[in-house]
Specification:
The chain has 1 helix and 6 strands. The chain has a 6-stranded antiparallel beta sheet with strand order 4-3-2-1-5-6, with no helix packed on it. The protein has one domain: Roll (SH3 type barrels), CATH 2.30.30.210. A hairpin with a 3-residue loop joins β3 and β4. With 88 residues, the protein is mainly beta. It is globular and about 30 Å long. The longest helix is centred in the C-terminal third of the chain and has 10 residues. Its EC number is 3.1.26.5. It holds the Pfam family RNase_P-MRP_p29. This is Ribonuclease P protein component 1. One of its GO terms (molecular function) is ribonuclease P activity.
Length: 88
């Protein structure tokens, strides 16, 4: 899974860390993605965080690899984002 292909995969269950955000309250939040909506990710760390996708840059851990994704690329309902794969 690479930076380009992660947008077509399921994000729930992946370990995520917020590495960049204009909102200081979101910085360095890390945990596991437990839910995803059109515009937000729910990350369970030391507590439950609801993070707007368009405000952050996220680092996902996939096995021993780390993939950094701009949250703006993840905007959209998960099932619709998956359908975009077949249109390209």
């Amino acid at each position: 899974m690479t930076r380009k292909t992660i947008i077509w995969h399921e994000l729930i269950g992946l370990k995520a860390k917020i590495i960049k955000s204009p909102h200081q309250g979101f910085m360095h939040i890390e945990g596991y993605v437990i839910d995803e909506t059109k515009n937000t990710l729910k990350i369970l760390g030391d507590k439950l965080y609801i993070i707007p996708k368009d405000q952050v840059e996220i680092e996902f851990e996939i096995g021993d690899k780390k993939v950094i994704v701009d949250g703006k690329e993840l905007i959209g309902r998960p099932e619709m984002r998956l359908k975009k794969r077949w249109r390209r």
